[in-house]
């Protein structure tokens, strides 16, 4: 009997609910030369795939979520990277901002991408480090809110291992480490809008998902004091904040996004190969070319809209902010890379009406179909709390301070507090006056957006669902 020769091909196979799996098939051949020819042909084919990474810098947060980041990477992700012949430099973070600081020191340009293993906080840290490093190397002053930022062409991969994985869920459709690793291996690329936040010409933070004042800011502020409770602290703080029912007075000024094709209520969700996002692909270059003209037009103030009022929540989202509990997210039709923000204003209303609004995030009803809810698609916005607007009056300040102390002692009094804080992608931002601007497709992820389900739209057939590793 002739000796058999064999080689194994590993490939990606789609499973249910946006999950991907690594499968394999072994080919047998009696001719050793023919077997080697096949192996060589497949290697040459893979070499032509220039979008696939060969060298990655990996940051692992061993403390986030259920403290499983290191185990998840070593058992589920590293073996796949090895199969795909991807070399890695692994850094296990030891303290807050370790990854961010390290990105300013290492030679990031020798890597094809950066991978973060953790939750949204870990991703935010890596994002701030990468964007900050690129701007520093390009001579861009991040403290200038009108400066056109330089795009980051080094992709970031997210291996979900945190207590919240909103960015991963909104860009992949599932929080599965293997699926995310496979998106990295095949070299997927998803551009992503990033918002910059400033106060008095000082850079504060970047945001890619939720920037929330009032309800979501209060939840975060309260939950930070209860980290010992684990992930259940978000439920506890959410219930407590709902009962408190605080509202905040202030002024919101925004510049509508006239360049976009869609609107927040058109029900056109951002999916793989999104047409609306593709139309915005050339916008970053055009913004930089027309920077001076755009600057002059904005300063004229003709297109700016101003809204004053009492708000339970002010939410600015760059993406849908979908998650397992809220499959539609805060703004179902928000787009990942169209150069706009969806600004959601929830005015003061009864507890019952606010509950109706919150419940609609979990079902198929239109969550904007309320008289006390307004939504706008914008490019920039500014917010100033009434507390700051009245700060020149000493008498008012004293009264507000005393009343504010009473509210802190009795959180369920259903009153008007002086200030909330901003929930910036799950991190606190303690500034009541901010200026926010979206930067179209500033960065890229190892992702392809959420794919359409087969029962929604059969855009894929069996011949297109597999890719070689």
Please explain how this structure is put together:
This protein has 469 residues and is an alpha+beta fold. 31% of the residues lie in helices and 27% in strands. It is built from 14 helices and 17 strands. The protein has helices at 32-47, 69-83, 98-103, 120-137, 166-172, 177-185, 215-224, 232-244, 275-279, 283-289, 291-300, 351-359, 386-389, 394-409, and strands spanning 5-14, 20-29, 55-60, 87-92, 113-118, 155-160, 190-199, 202-207, 210-214, 248-256, 305-317, 341-347, 373-385, 422-424, 427-429, 433-445, 467-468. Strands 7, 8, 9, 10, 11, 12, 13, 14, 15 and 16 form a ten-stranded antiparallel sheet that branches. Helix 2 (69-83) runs parallel beside helix 6 and helix 7 crosses helix 8. It is elongated, with a radius of gyration of 24 Å.
Rounded radius of gyration (Å): 24 Å
Largest sheet: 10 strands, antiparallel
Q: Helix fraction?
A: 25-40%
Structural class: alpha+beta
Binned strand content: 25-35%
How far apart the termini lie comes to 32 Å
The coarse overall form would be elongated
Number of strands: 17
Rounded average pLDDT: 86
Total of DSSP H or I helical runs spanning 4+ residues: 14
Low-pLDDT stretches = 392-413, 454-466
Summarize the structure.
Helix content is 31%, strand content 27%. The protein is α+β, with helices and mostly antiparallel strands.
Topology:
Layout: E1 5-14, E2 20-29, H1 32-47, E3 55-60, H2 69-83, E4 87-92, H3 98-103, E5 113-118, H4 120-137, E6 155-160, H5 166-172, H6 177-185, E7 190-199, E8 202-207, E9 210-214, H7 215-224, H8 232-244, E10 248-256, H9 275-279, H10 283-289, H11 291-300, E11 305-317, E12 341-347, H12 351-359, E13 373-385, H13 386-389, H14 394-409, E14 422-424, E15 427-429, E16 433-445, E17 467-468
Parallel strand pairs: 3-4, 3-5, 5-6
Antiparallel strand pairs: 1-2, 1-17, 7-8, 7-16, 9-11, 9-14, 10-11, 10-13, 11-12, 12-13, 13-16, 14-15
Helix pairs in contact: 2-6, 7-8
């Amino acid at each position: 009997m002739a000796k058999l020769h064999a080689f194994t091909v590993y490939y990606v196979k789609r499973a249910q609910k946006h999950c991907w799996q690594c499968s394999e098939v072994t080919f047998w051949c009696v001719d050793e030369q023919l077997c080697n020819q096949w192996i060589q042909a497949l290697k040459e084919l893979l070499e032509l795939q220039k979008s696939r990474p060969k060298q990655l810098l990996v940051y692992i947060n061993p403390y986030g979520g259920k403290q499983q980041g290191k185990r998840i990477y070593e058992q589920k992700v590293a073996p796949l990277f090895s199969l795909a012949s991807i070399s890695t430099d692994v850094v296990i973070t030891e303290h807050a901002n370790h990854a961010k600081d390290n990105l300013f020191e290492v030679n990031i340009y020798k890597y094809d991408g950066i991978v973060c293993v953790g939750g949204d906080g870990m991703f935010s840290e890596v994002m701030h480090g990468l964007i900050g490093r690129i701007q520093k190397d390009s001579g861009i002053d991040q403290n200038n809110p009108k400066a056109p930022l330089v795009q980051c062409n080094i992709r970031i991969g997210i291996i979900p291992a945190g207590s919240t994985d909103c960015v991963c869920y909104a860009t992949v459709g599932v929080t599965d480490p293997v699926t995310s690793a496979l998106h990295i291996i095949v070299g997927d690329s998803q551009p992503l809008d990033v918002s910059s936040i400033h106060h008095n010409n000082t850079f504060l933070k970047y945001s890619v998902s939720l920037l929330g004042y009032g309800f979501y800011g209060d939840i975060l502020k309260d939950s930070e004091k209860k980290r010992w409770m684990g992930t259940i602290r978000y439920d506890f703080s959410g219930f407590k904040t709902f009962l408190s029912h605080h509202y905040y007075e202030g002024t919101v000024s925004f510049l509508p996004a006239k360049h976009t094709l869609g609107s927040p209520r058109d029900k056109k969700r951002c999916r793989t190969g999104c047409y609306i996002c593709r139309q915005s692909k050339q916008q970053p270059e055009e913004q930089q070319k027309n920077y001076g003209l755009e600057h002059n037009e904005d300063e004229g103030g003709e297109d700016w809209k101003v809204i004053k009022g009492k708000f339970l929540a002010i939410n600015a989202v760059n993406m849908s902010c979908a998650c397992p509990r809220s499959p539609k997210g805060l703004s179902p039709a928000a787009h990942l890379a169209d150069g706009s923000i969806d600004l959601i204003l929830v005015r003061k209303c009864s507890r019952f009406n606010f509950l109706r609004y919150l419940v609609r995030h979990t079902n198929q009803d239109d969550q904007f179909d309320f008289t006390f809810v307004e939504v706008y698609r914008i490019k920039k916005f500014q917010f100033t709390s009434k507390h700051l607007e009245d700060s020149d009056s000493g008498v008012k300040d004293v009264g507000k301070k005393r009343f504010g102390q009473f509210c802190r002692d009795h959180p369920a009094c259903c009153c008007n507090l002086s200030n909330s804080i901003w929930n910036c992608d799950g991190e606190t931002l303690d500034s009541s006056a901010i200026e926010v601007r979206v930067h179209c497709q500033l960065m890229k992820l190892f992702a392809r957006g959420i794919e359409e389900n087969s029962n929604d739209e059969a855009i894929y057939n069996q011949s297109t669902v597999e890719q070689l590793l």
